[in-house]
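hey
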C-alpha cells in the first residue's frame, strides 16, 4: 500500500533528471547572456580608458626605467634603473631582468616601463651641495615703545564752538602723559587671535607616482 501511494503522488510531478537538465539549460543561457553583456561593457570602458593612450613597443635587450616604490617610503614611487628587457610576454607586458643574474626576472606592464635613452654627449661633472643663507629681515618699520616727548598742540577742528575748544585744550593738558610722540604698551587687556582650527587635518596615505 505504501509503495502504491508513493508512486501515485510522484506520478504528477516532473522527474528529477528532467528538472536538473532544464535547470542546467537555463543557467547556461543566463551565463551566455552575462558574458555577452560583460564583453560589451568591458569594450566600452576600454575605449574610454584608451582615449589618451599611445601605443608603445619594446624590443629585447632594450634598456628601460621601472616605476618602483621608494626604499624610504613605500607609498612614494620613482623611476629606477635602467634594466634590460628580456622578451615580450604579451602586447602590453614584458619580462624584465632586474640584475645581472639572469634568474632574477619579473613581468611588468608597459605602464610601469619607460624606455631608457643613452646620453649621446658626455655630461660634465656635477657637484652636489647646499648653501645656507641667513634670513633677510623683513622690510617692516617697527614703532619703538620707549617713552618719547609730548606731542605738539594738536590741531583742533575750527567748527567747534569756543567753549568746546577750551574744554578740549584743558583735557589734553591734563593727560599730557598719554599724548606722546611714541606709542606705549599696556597690560590691562589681552587679545587672542585664532588663526587655524583646532581640528587636525588628516589624509589617507596614497602612492605619489613620479611619472
Amino acid at each position: 500500500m505504501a509503495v502504491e501511494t508513493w508512486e501515485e503522488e510522484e506520478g504528477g510531478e516532473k522527474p528529477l533528471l528532467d528538472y536538473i537538465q532544464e535547470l542546467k539549460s537555463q543557467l547556461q543561457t543566463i551565463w551566455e547572456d552575462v558574458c555577452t553583456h560583460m564583453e560589451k561593457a568591458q569594450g566600452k570602458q576600454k575605449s574610454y580608458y584608451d582615449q589618451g593612450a599611445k601605443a608603445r613597443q619594446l624590443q629585447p635587450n632594450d634598456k628601460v626605467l621601472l616605476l618602483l616604490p621608494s626604499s624610504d617610503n613605500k607609498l612614494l614611487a620613482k623611476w629606477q634603473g635602467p634594466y634590460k628587457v628580456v622578451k615580450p610576454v604579451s602586447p602590453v607586458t614584458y619580462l624584465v631582468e632586474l640584475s645581472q643574474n639572469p634568474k632574477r626576472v619579473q613581468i611588468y606592464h608597459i605602464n610601469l616601463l619607460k624606455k631608457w635613452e643613452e646620453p649621446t654627449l658626455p655630461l660634465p661633472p656635477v657637484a652636489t651641495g647646499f648653501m645656507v643663507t641667513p634670513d633677510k629681515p623683513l622690510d617692516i618699520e617697527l614703532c619703538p615703545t620707549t617713552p618719547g616727548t609730548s606731542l605738539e598742540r594738536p590741531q583742533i577742528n575750527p567748527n567747534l564752538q569756543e567753549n568746546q575748544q577750551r574744554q578740549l585744550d584743558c583735557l589734553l593738558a591734563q593727560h599730557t602723559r598719554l599724548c606722546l610722540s611714541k606709542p606705549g604698551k599696556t597690560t590691562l587687556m589681552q587679545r587672542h587671535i585664532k588663526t587655524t582650527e583646532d581640528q587636525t587635518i588628516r589624509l589617507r596615505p596614497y602612492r605619489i607616482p613620479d611619472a
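Strands lie at 63-69, 77-90, 93-97, 105-109, 113-115. Helices lie at 2-11, 16-49, 162-174.
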